[in-house]
Design a protein that fits this description.
heterodimer; A: about 170 residues; mainly alpha; Four Helix Bundle (Hemerythrin (Met), subunit A); 3 strands; about 70% helix; B: about 190 residues; alpha/beta; five-stranded parallel beta sheet; about 35% helix; globular
């Protein structure tokens, strides 16, 4: 048998194109779809609440030492989702907070270690910051408040990482 | 003379959306409906999606990466290589917040056709469908890979990718790739 086999697959999506030549995106459909995203975003702060509650529940479990590995994985997964959801609806600063949180959590998660009190404090601060962004409706880069939140988080991350390295 | 233009008719294709976040599933569904897609099924986990594919003849799969217990990549590998896979050739769009170089390469090597970075936009999703429809890729089977031809167009790395690759190898730099850089890596 040859090392590489090329397989020409049937083009089942030929039915999805009418006419020949280069396809053209339908501007009207595109506008409708953009409207759908916008309409969806109007209820965003309500439905994001469920994710925030789950995040808080995972954080609480961590603080009480209940199944910490599971709680850490849950919290990490919700934080990852927030990136896409936050930026889809104008909460860009959430993406930055989430980036800080997941960068901080990843080595801990991969090492499978238990959170130190200082590390838990960092996680708690990030969860609080994410809640604040939504409750205060800090859209875009979050303005001065958003930047102050990010600066504060960066400081405690540095402190916790320095303590862990000792 | 210019070539006649054609239009896309997404109303007769079947799409399966796999995402463990029900809000994201709803959002993707809303966008697809607006773009004219009528036949949409959804699944909240990989096992349910794989089962659904046994009787739903999906033309395109839209798959989120970060899920448990099986993640999106596990699911793609399952669709591409499992003996009981209903359609190993089905085009797959990976929807994710991960756009770092190593992640895109990992997705490509699992057999993903297109990569759609979050935050999701209607235009980007529409364009991914157009790309799949206009540029069907032959499949490649080697000892270590089965999936869409990753070398369909040898465009080389776009500006910036070499530098990011170096960053990734050195463990520095965490910025994601742009959509055009992702497309080039995927062979699009």
């Amino acid at each position: 048998m040859a090392d590489v086999e090329f397989i020409q697959t049937p083009n089942t999506l030929r039915k999805a194109k009418i006419g020949s030549g280069p396809g053209k995106l339908d501007k009207n459909l595109l506008a409708e779809a953009e409207k759908a995203i916008e309409a969806f975003g109007e209820g965003f702060t309500d439905w994001i609440q469920e994710d925030l509650d789950n995040m808080e529940a995972a954080r609480l479990q961590l603080s009480q030492g209940e199944n910490p590995e599971r709680a850490l994985a849950d919290l990490y997964r919700i934080a990852l989702d927030l990136k896409g959801q936050g930026t889809s609806f104008g909460y860009d600063v959430v993406s930055a907070v989430r980036g800080s949180l997941t960068d901080f959590m990843l080595p801990i998660k991969e090492a499978g270690t238990t959170l130190t009190p200082l590390q838990l404090e960092v996680v708690t601060a990030h969860v609080g910051a994410i809640r604040a962004v939504f409750s205060e409706e800090l859209k875009g880069d979050g303005g001065a408040t958003g930047q102050a939140l990010l600066n504060g988080l960066a400081r405690i991350v540095v402190k916790a990482n320095a303590a862990s390295a000792r | 003379m210019s070539e006649p233009t054609s239009r896309y008719a997404l109303d007769n294709i079947n799409v399966l959306v796999l995402d463990d976040n029900r809000h994201m599933r709803s959002l993707v569904q809303s966008i697809l409906h607006s773009l004219g897609v009528k036949n949409i099924r959804e699944a909240a986990d990989a096992a349910a999606a794989f089962k659904e594919l046994q009787h739903f003849l999906a033309d395109v799969l839209i798959v989120d990466w970060h899920m448990e217990p099986l993640d999106g990549l596990d699911f793609v590998r399952l669709v591409r290589t499992a003996k009981d896979s209903a359609n190993p050739y089905v085009p797959i769009i990976m929807l994710t917040g991960y756009t770092e170089y190593g992640r895109v390469v990992e997705a490509r090597d699992a057999g993903v056709n297109e990569f759609l970075a979050k935050p999701i936009s209607a235009r980007a999703l529409y364009q991914r469908f157009a790309s799949i429809i206009d540029n069907p890729r032959p499949f490649i089977k080697t000892k270590s890979y089965f999936g869409p031809d990753r070398r369909r167009q040898n465009l080389g790395a776009p500006r910036g990718v070499q530098e990011r690759r170096k960053d990734a190898q050195e463990g520095t730099g965490s910025d994601g790739l742009s959509q055009s850089e992702v497309e080039s890596l995927l062979g699009g």
